[in-house]
Specification:
Blueprint (H helix, E strand, L loop, with lengths): L2 H18 L19 H14 L4 H23 L5 H14 L9 H19 L4 E3 L9 E6 L8 H9 L12 E6 L22 E6 L8 H5 L5 E3 L5 E3 L9 H5 L5 E3 L14 E3 L11 E3 L4 H4 L6 H5 L5 E5 L6 H8 L2 E2 L11 E4 L2
Parallel strand pairs: 1-8, 2-12
Antiparallel strand pairs: 2-10, 3-4, 5-6, 7-9, 11-12
Length: 358
C-alpha cells in the first residue's frame, strides 16, 4: 500500500472509531463511563501502525484489520450493551466486514460470493425482503459494443425511464445515466446548443435526437485518474465501479470527455415497491451517498445474455447492442455495412459506442 493510501485509510479508520466513541448506551462518553480503561481510538490506531509496518499486500492488511476490529466491536457491544438481539449483532458484523474489505477487483471468486451474500443478508435484515444479487464474471470471447441509429431516434425518452427503473437510480434528484439531446438540423453535433430537458411533443420539426451515456472506452481516461482504483475495465469491455471503494473525489467525472459519470449528493432513494431486486454487485445494487455512478450497459442483464434495458425499451429500434467478437451479431453487421462514427475520435479513448444513420 502506498504512503498516500496508508494515510488516507488510517485517517478514515481513526474518524470512524472517533465517531463510535460517543455512542455508548450507558449515557456517558465511553472514555469516562468506567468500562473503558484504554482509549479505543489510540488502541486501534496502534494496531493500524503495527499492521502497516508488516510487509503484506492491501488485501491481507485489511483482512487483519477486519478481524481485529470485529473483535473490538464485539467487546464494546458486551461492555456497553450497544447491540441487542442476534440480528443486530449480525448486522454489525456485516457492516464491519463491508467497511474494511479490500478492493473488489482484487478479490477471489469465493471472496466476491461472500461479499454478495453479506449484502443480500443485510437487505433482508433491514427490509424483511429478498434480493437476487450476482457477482458473475465476464464471459470468454465476449466484448460488448453499442450502436445508436440517429435517423431512428424520435426523442421519446423511453430508454431514459427504463434505465432509471432498471438501475435503481435516485428518484429525488432525478438522476439519469442516459441523456437525449435535441439538436437543430444543420447545426451539426453541437452539444452546447442542444436541449437536454425538452418538454414538448416529439419529434419536433427541424430537429434530430442523439443519445449519450458511458461509452465504455477501451482507453478510458476515467480509470486512469482514479486514486483508489475504484473503477476499471473488465475483460468484456465494461467499465465498472466498486461503490464500496469509491471515495467520491470526482476525478473520473472531470476526466470523462463524454459526460458519462454521475455523482450522488445524497443517499439514493427508491420506493421499496419500485426497487429492482435483480442486481449485480458492480451494477444496479443500491448505492451509498457520495459515490460516482454510471451506465454499465446493464451488467446485471448483459452478462445473462439479455439486452440493456434501454435497448429493450426503445420503441423505434434506434439502439443496437451485442458482442463485437461474434461475426453474426447485429452490432457487427452495423459496423461492417453502415457508415459509422464515434464522438471525439481524436482523443484516442476508443469508445465502444458508435453512431450511424440509415
Amino acid at each position: 500500500m502506498s504512503t498516500t493510501n496508508k494515510k488516507w485509510f488510517s485517517l478514515n479508520l481513526s474518524n470512524t472509531l472517533k465517531d463510535q466513541s460517543h455512542s455508548c448506551s450507558c449515557g456517558k462518553n465511553e472514555r469516562g463511563c468506567g468500562s473503558h480503561d484504554t482509549p479505543p481510538a489510540k488502541e486501534h490506531r496502534d494496531g493500524v501502525d503495527q499492521i502497516f509496518d508488516l510487509k503484506m499486500d492491501r488485501r491481507n492488511a485489511l483482512k487483519k484489520l477486519t478481524a481485529s476490529l470485529t473483535i473490538g466491536a464485539g467487546a464494546i457491544s458486551t461492555s456497553c450493551n450497544v447491540l441487542a438481539g442476534e440480528e443486530n449483532k449480525e448486522m454489525a458484523q456485516i457492516e464491519w466486514e463491508e467497511q474494511f474489505k479490500g478492493n473488489y477487483k482484487l478479490m477471489t471468486d469465493q471472496e466476491k460470493k461472500a461479499t454478495v451474500d453479506r449484502l443480500v443478508r443485510s437487505y433482508q435484515i433491514r427490509t424483511g425482503k429478498t434480493i437476487n444479487m450476482s457477482s458473475k464474471n465476464a464471459e470468454e470471447n465476449v466484448l460488448f459494443g453499442y450502436a445508436f441509429n440517429i435517423s431512428k431516434c424520435q426523442g421519446y425518452m423511453d430508454c431514459v425511464n427504463a434505465c432509471v427503473e432498471e438501475n435503481n437510480q435516485d428518484r429525488n434528484s432525478q438522476m439519469q445515466y442516459i441523456r437525449i439531446h435535441e439538436m437543430k438540423d444543420g447545426k451539426g453535433f453541437n452539444f452546447n446548443e442542444a436541449d437536454d430537458n425538452y418538454y414538448h411533443e416529439v419529434p419536433a420539426e427541424g430537429h434530430f435526437y442523439m443519445g449519450t451515456q458511458c461509452f465504455h472506452c477501451d482507453n478510458s481516461p476515467c480509470t486512469e485518474v482514479c486514486p483508489v482504483q475504484a473503477t476499471w475495465r473488465e475483460d468484456d469491455g465494461l467499465v465498472v465501479v466498486d461503490y464500496d471503494w469509491c471515495v467520491g473525489c470526482r476525478y473520473c467525472m472531470a476526466a470523462c470527455p463524454y459526460d458519462g459519470r454521475r455523482f450522488n449528493w445524497s443517499t439514493p432513494e427508491v420506493p421499496e415497491e419500485e426497487v429492482n431486486k435483480n442486481q449485480h454487485y458492480l451494477g444496479n445494487r443500491m448505492r451509498k451517498k457520495g459515490v460516482m455512478e454510471k451506465c454499465t450497459f446493464c451488467i446485471q442483464r448483459s452478462r445473462e445474455g439479455k439486452n440493456p434495458a434501454c435497448v429493450e425499451a426503445c420503441p423505434t429500434g434506434a439502439r443496437i447492442f451485442g458482442n463485437l467478437l461474434d461475426p453474426n451479431s447485429t452490432i457487427r453487421w452495423v459496423l461492417e455495412n453502415k457508415k459509422v462514427f464515434r464522438l471525439k475520435e481524436d482523443l484516442g479513448t476508443e469508445p465502444k459506442f458508435w453512431y450511424f444513420m440509415d
